Amino acid sequence: SQQGEEDPQALSIQEGENATMNCSYKTSINNLQWYRQNSGRGLVHLILIRSNEREKHSGRLRVTLDTSKKSSSLLITASRAADTASYFCAINLPHTGANSKLTFGKGITLSVRP
Amino acid sequence: DTGVSQDPRHKITKRGQNVTFRCDPISEHNRLYWYRQTLGQGPEFLTYFQNEAQLEKSRLLSDRFSAERPKGSFSTLEIQRTEQGDSAMYLCASSLREQGYEQYFGPGTRLTVT
Questions:
Q1: Quick one: average pLDDT of A44-68?
Q2: Cβ of A101 and B105 within 8 Å?
Q3: Among B96, B45, B49, which Cα is nearest to B68's?
Q4: N- or C-end of chain B: fewer Cβ atoms within 10 A?
C-alpha cells in the first residue's frame, strides 16, 4: 500500500501539553499534507509540506519531513480541548499529472483533556 | 465552513435502491474529487474531475457508481442498486490548480444502506 500510516493510533494528553503524531509512507512523494477531522464532519486542511522542504510552521503547528526515512511528524504545541479530533496525513504522489489526488492514512485520534 | 457544500448530509436507503448525492465546490475551483470514508479509516479516492472532464476513476468505483460534472460546476455521484457495503461517508473536495495541491472538503454525505 502507498498510503501513509500514522502512529500512534490514539493519543490522550492533558490540555497545555504538546502532541506529537507521526506518519510513515512507502514511496516517493510530491508533497505530504495533514488534515483534521472533527467527529462526523469533513476534513480541514492544516498544513502542506513539499518533498524538498524539511520543516514548516503554522501557528501552533510544526511539521517535519524526512524523505530519507519516508516519515513526517506533526507537533501541536500547547494543546487545547478544541484540538480533540482525528488527524490524517495524506500523500500526493509525483507523476500524477493534473490529478493531485490524495492517499490518506487511517488517522490518529487525539483527545485533549481539559 | 470551507465553502464546499454537499447534499443531503444524511441518507438512509434500502438495499437495491438508487441514491444520488450532490456536491457544490468553491465556485472558481476547477478540480473536484470524490472520496469515500468508512468508520475508522481514512478517505479513499474514488474519482476526479478537471472542469467537466472525468479524468480518473479508482478501481473502487464499480459499474454501479457514476459521477458527473456536467457544466464544470456542481457534481453528482449516483449509486445504483445499493448494497450494505456501500454504507460510508462520501466526501467531496475541490481545489484550484493554480493554487497548488490543497483540497477543500465538504461536510460529507453519510449513507446508510439497510
A1: 95
A2: no
A3: B49
A4: N
